[in-house]
Every structure is written in C-alpha cells, then in structure tokens.
Amino acid sequence: MTSSNGHRNDQQVGTTVLIVMMEVDEADDEVFNKWYNEEHLPERMSIPGYVSARRFILDPEDGQNNNVMRYLCIWEMENDSPLQSQLYKDQNAKPTPTKEAANAVVKQRARGLYRQIFPASGVYNDRVGYTYPDGIRIGA
Questions:
Q1: Which tens digit of pLDDT belongs to each residue from 4-44?
Q2: How far does CA 8 lie from the centroid of its chain?
Q3: How many CA within 13 A on the CB side of residue 126?
Q4: Cβ pair 111, 19 in contact under 8 A
Q5: Spatial distance between the Cα atoms of 50 and 115, rounded to a whole number of angstroms
Q6: CATH top class, domain 16-138
Q7: Is 102 helix (H, G, I), strand (E, B) or coil?
Q8: Taking the domains of the chain in order of start, what are their residue ranges?
C-alpha cells in the first residue's frame, strides 16, 4: 500500500538489520534530516538487497542519559550482501555537498549489523497468550 506521499505504509522485513544511531544538535536537524530523507534513504534503497528503512528520533521524555543517541535508523536487508556490493562502495566514494554538510554536524555515530535468530524468517506474531508454569494465563 502506498500513501499519498509515495511512501509505502506496509512494513517489510529482512533477516538482517543494520542499526545506525547518530547524535546531532537540534540546531543542525534541518541539514541532517534533509540529507538523510532526501538523499541517503533513496540512495541506499536503490541497492539490491535493501528491503526497507525507518527512521526514529529519541523521545525527549526518555532523556539522553541512557547511552543512546537522538537519531536511529533501522535498515532491513535480505542479508549483509548490500554492504559488500560495488554500488554501495561507489556511493560511499561519491560525497555530495549535502552529504558533506550532514556529516559535518554528526557529533557521534554507532552502527551494528544484526542477523535474525528467531524466528528463522518473518516476525514473531503469536497472539495466543502465555501460560506461566503456575497455570496463570495472560493474553488472548
């Protein structure tokens, strides 16, 4: 399903996720978000093997004293092959003015590549509930 802005509303999943966190001062949000949303996401999603991407910003109520950064992007991939592709390497070798401006305002970043371990594919969506060893049942 596609929304009125052209973005898909249904979430697709892969068996590998690349988690990227970045710290950017609020004063630099505009330049950072412009690059990420208008250049970086479309550029990466053009690489075969990328399935979907979603971006998040830390809830201000959660604070920043918990060793996480303000911005989070979850990249769903079929496997880690997109990161090994020539297209990925070519994109990294071509910095644009927008990318350079955005990278200049990133104060800190962390990323990790995670492979799915359960279930073997897809998502866990069992809604039958859970029964504790003492027989108490919760859920459906």
A1: 444 555 667 889 999 999 999 999 999 999 999 999 999 99
A2: 15
A3: 7
A4: yes
A5: 14
A6: alpha beta
A7: helix
A8: 16-138
